[in-house]
Amino acid sequence: MNPKPKRLSDRIRLDLEIIADLIETGSRVLDLGCGEGDLLAKLMKEKACNGQGIEIQDKNICACVEKGVPVIHADLDEGLREYPDNSFDYVILSRTLQVVKRPDFILKEMLRVGKIGIVSFPNFSALTVRSQLFFKGQMPVTKNLPYQWFNTPNIHLLTIKDFNAFCSQEAIAVLKQINLGTERKKGVLPDLLPNLFAHLAIFKIQGNAEPGIQ
User: Fold this and answer.
1) Does residue 79 fall inside a structural domain?
2) pTM of the predicted model over 0.90
3) Is there a domain that residue 150 lies in?
4) Parent domain of 89
5) Residue 9: pLDDT band by 50, 70, 90 thresholds?
6) Three-class SS of residue 61?
7) Residue 172 has pLDDT above 90, yes or no
8) pLDDT band, very low/low/confident/very high, at 3 (cuts 50, 70, 90)
9) What is the CATH number of the domain that holds 84?
C-alpha cells in the first residue's frame, strides 16, 4: 500500500505555519519574497485568501506557477509603487528582511500597502551565534544562518532588540511577537529572554502608532 501523500501544511516550515495562523480567512495577502509559494498556496487553499506573491528568482517563480500561486517578478528594493495604500489586509516579509538593501524602506512600504505587516527574521544575537563569535572568532553558521561569510545573501543582519527599537523609533506598533528557539520551536527561554534564546522571531506589526508605544 502506498503511503498517504503529505498534506500541504505538513510540508511547510513551522514559521510559515505560525504566520498562516495569524491571518484571517478571506484576507487579501501580499507575500514579499514569497519563495516557492508554499505559504500563499496554503492560505489560498485552506483560508480562501486572495494571494499575490513577489519574487525575484526565476526557479521560485516557476514553482509558484506550478502551485497556482499568482506571482510577479520584481525586485523588492525598488519598492511597491505599483500598489496603492491599504490595498492588502496583510503583507508578509518572511525571512527576507535581512537580504534586502534597504530594510527600513521596504518595511515602510509594506505598512503603506498593507493594513497589517508580518515580519520574520533570524536573530543574530541568539546564544549559539554569540558563542561561535566568542569562542571561534568567526562568522557564525547555524540552521537559521546557514551560509559562509563569502556566499551569504544576508546583508543586514539584525537582532530582536534592534527590530523592537526600530519599531519604537518609527511609530510602528508591535501587535504580537512570537519567539522560536532551537529547531524553531516555542519555549519558555525564548519568551523569557528572546534576544538571547530566540533563534527566529515573528512580528505582527501595524503602522501609525503613537511614538514610543509598543
Assistant:
1) yes
2) no
3) no
4) 11-124+157-206
5) very low
6) helix
7) yes
8) very low
9) 3.40.50.150
